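Propose amino acids for all 287 sites.
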């Protein structure tokens, strides 16, 4: 909404009152003094918003970042704050694992890395779809460090062969995999309705060879803003880019072979797209 439009703010305040009334009737409490508000949008428009949102006469505090279900959101939806928190936490646990790695067998060390490091890299990582490589660099460095702890290689050795030997997709392609898996569930009717509304199968107006290819409609968005990172854009874009034998890879039943198909396709994408990016990461990591 535009900053000068106040009708929607009134609706928001009414919605907050209804939520508090519902919580009170169910013996719950919405603490007005601890409730915070975050404004999303371009900075020039945010600065023009001078209307305060109130709840029971208390002006709610505008926050620069909020945490929801373990994910930190910022006003620009850049997720830089979330990436910083994940990096700090993952490196902390990785340092502790490296101190006792010589006392563990490889299988047990790998379990610890997956439990305390990889799980943090993968948690809600589909939200990072469309983020620039500069933002994902710190997460990739964590994965590189985890691979070195497990294998004991020198920090000057190339990391790509090590990731291949561990069967680890790089961070960027782990995000691709999560987004594609959600897309697959949407098309198979296994996802929530709010996600199904964002993906539309392609239906041509006349018979075409592509009508049975399993492609979906890519909406037109403003990539200069946040539209290029929305699930409604990233999911169809990545889905339609799946290489070779699209009809087979997009229509297999949802079990382990299906995940194998996705991994195979992503590895193909990795070979096609990642060569230059990996060289840059390795060069920066060895400095």
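Proposal:
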């Amino acid at each position: 909404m535009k900053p000068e439009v106040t009708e929607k703010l009134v609706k928001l305040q009414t919605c907050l009152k209804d939520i508090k009334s519902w919580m009170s009737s169910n013996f719950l409490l919405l603490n007005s003094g601890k409730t915070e508000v975050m404004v999303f949008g371009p900075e020039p428009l945010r600065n023009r918003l001078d209307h305060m949102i109130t709840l029971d006469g208390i002006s709610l505090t505008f926050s620069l970042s909020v945490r929801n279900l373990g994910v930190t959101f910022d006003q620009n939806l850049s997720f830089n704050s979330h990436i910083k928190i994940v990096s700090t936490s993952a490196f902390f646990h990785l340092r502790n694992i490296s101190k006792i790695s010589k006392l563990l067998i490889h299988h047990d060390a790998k379990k610890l890395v997956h439990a305390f490091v990889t799980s943090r890299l993968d948690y809600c990582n589909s939200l990072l779809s469309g983020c620039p490589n500069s933002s994902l660099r710190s997460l990739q460095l964590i994965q590189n460090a985890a691979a070195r702890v497990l294998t004991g290689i020198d920090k000057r050795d190339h990391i790509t062969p090590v990731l291949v030997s561990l069967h680890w997709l790089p961070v960027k392609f782990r995000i691709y995999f999560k987004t594609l898996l959600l897309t697959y569930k949407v098309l198979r009717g296994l996802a929530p309705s709010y996600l199904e509304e964002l993906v539309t199968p392609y239906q041509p107006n006349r018979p075409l060879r592509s009508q049975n290819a399993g492609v979906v409609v890519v909406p037109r968005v403003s990539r200069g803003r946040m539209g290029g990172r929305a699930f409604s854009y990233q999911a169809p874009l990545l889905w339609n880019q799946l290489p070779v034998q699209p009809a087979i890879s997009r229509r297999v039943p949802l079990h382990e072979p299906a995940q194998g198909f996705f991994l195979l396709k992503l590895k193909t994408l990795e070979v096609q797209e990642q060569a230059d990016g990996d060289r840059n990461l390795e060069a920066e990591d060895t400095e």
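The longest helix spans residues 80-100. The two ends are 46 Å apart (CA to CA).
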